Amino acid sequence: MSSHIAVIGAGSWGTTVASVVAQNQPTMLWARRDALAKQINTQHQNVDYLGGAVLTESLSCSAKLQDVVQNASIVMMAVPSNGFREVLIEVAKHVSAGVPIVSLTKGLERETLMRMSEVIAEVLPRHSVAVLTGPNLAHEIL
């Protein structure tokens, strides 16, 4: 399989970023629930988080984390801070060496008060870390 951008987390922000990126690059989105992945793939919508907004048709979604992360050239993490580390540890099992990890997540890890970029550096120390930050206006971007 050729490389693609992986976006982990199919909430409003993760889905929005994935849809925008998919306009120019092959992109796979990870959804925790299979029913949501099927909805995104067949209806090109994420009704739970984005109402009737239409997503880029080329966006692919799966509830199988390994399928989304394997062969990714970049992994973008859009998981809430309270579950970020847990999901990142699972991502670490499947991501190729040296693939950059981008945090799209606001906030601090409650137990450690670490920023998500610090969590990434701790869990995946041999990967470049980047952060995309700013106002989260998912509905305005789509």
Sheet with most strands: 6 strands, parallel
**Radius of gyration (Å):** 14 Å
Give the rounded overall mean pLDDT: 95
For this structure, the quaternary state is single chain
The DSSP helix count reads: 7
Query: Can you list the strand order of the major beta sheet?
Result: 3-2-1-4-5-6
Strand elements, count: 6
Order of secondary-structure elements: EHEHHEHEHEHEH
The share of residues in extended strands comes to 15-25%
Features:
142 residues, 17% strand, 6-stranded parallel sheet, 35% helix, alpha/beta, Rossmann fold
3D architecture notes:
This protein has 142 residues and is an alpha/beta fold. It has a single domain (4-132), classed as 3-Layer(aba) Sandwich (Rossmann fold). Helix content is 35%, strand content 17%. It has 7 helices and 6 strands, in the order E-H-E-H-H-E-H-E-H-E-H-E-H. The chain has helices at residues 12-21, 34-43, 47-50, 65-69, 84-92, 116-123, 138-141; strands at 4-8, 27-30, 60-62, 72-77, 101-103, 129-131. A 6-stranded parallel sheet has the order 3-2-1-4-5-6, with helices on both faces. The chain is globular. The termini are far apart. The mean pLDDT is 95.
Protein topology:
Layout: E1 4-8, H1 12-21, E2 27-30, H2 34-43, H3 47-50, E3 60-62, H4 65-69, E4 72-77, H5 84-92, E5 101-103, H6 116-123, E6 129-131, H7 138-141
Parallel strand pairs: 1-2, 1-4, 2-3, 4-5, 5-6
Summarize this entry quickly.
With 142 residues, the chain is an alpha/beta fold. The chain has seven helices and six strands, in the order βαβααβαβαβαβα.
